Amino acid sequence: MTQSKKIKVLGITGGVGAGKSTVLDYLKRRYGARVLQCDEAAKILQEPGGSCYRPVAELFGEDVLGRDGRFDRGKIAAIVFTQEEFLEKLNAIVHPAVKKYVEEEIQKERDLGERSLFVVEAALLLDAGYDSFCDEVWYIHAPEEVRRLRLKTSRGYSEEKITRMMSAQRTEGYFRKYCQFAVDNSSDNVENTYEQIDEGLKTHGFL
Fold first, then answer.
1. Taking the domains of the chain in order of start, what are their residue ranges?
2. I want to staple 139 with a disulfide (CB 3.0 to 4.6 A). Which of 51, 109, 124, 182 is the partner?
3. pLDDT tens digits, residue range 110-127?
4. Is 8-47+94-203 a CATH 3.40.1390.20 domain?
């Protein structure tokens, strides 16, 4: 029996607009990491035939389904924004399924034995318990004013929407308390971010 290759699992989290995608892209390009974003996994699992499709459809009813049978995410978002109990029920369906999916993907990479780094990204990584299969969790951060500017320029979000999103997320103090390393991604010079990542991987035993 062939022994599975040891693979390190790195969790990436942080507030909206912190630039997590910049970090993920670098880890993939520079270190050949397998990158899995939990939001994307959740979307896959909620597609017709996915393990979450039927439970979510039963929770919200047929009104949230489009003509193609897929969920209208705008309608679901409107419901969970005004009715918190629906958000809790949705998370109770999706989070365990995503966790199982990620664990299975990590094992697949172990069995293939081609990579030494697996990166999992989620804004709710800590809240959803995804840190249980991570060797470490890193916090990607930037000052609020920088994040607001990014969200306005890159996504066209209004100040009201940004404020609402930020108020729903964990504080910087929370992230710093439960994460093992922090990357300051506020600089316009992306090389500063890359240098911190390189140093963190070396000093924390990922290389």
1. 8-47+94-203
2. 182
3. 999 999 999 999 999 999
4. no
The pLDDT value given to residue 7:
94
* 3-class DSSP assignment, residue 172: helix
Distance CA 136, CA 67 (A): 42
Are 153 and 108 in contact by the 8 Å Cβ rule? The answer is: no
Residue 26 has, within 13 A of its CA and on its CB side, a CA count of 18
**Whole-number pLDDT of residue 4:** 52
DSSP states of 85-153: HHHHHHHHHHHHHHHHHHHHHHHHHHHHT--SEEEEE-TTTTTTTGGGG-SEEEEEE--HHHHHHHHHH
Give which of 129, 115, 111 is closest to 9, Cα–Cα: 115
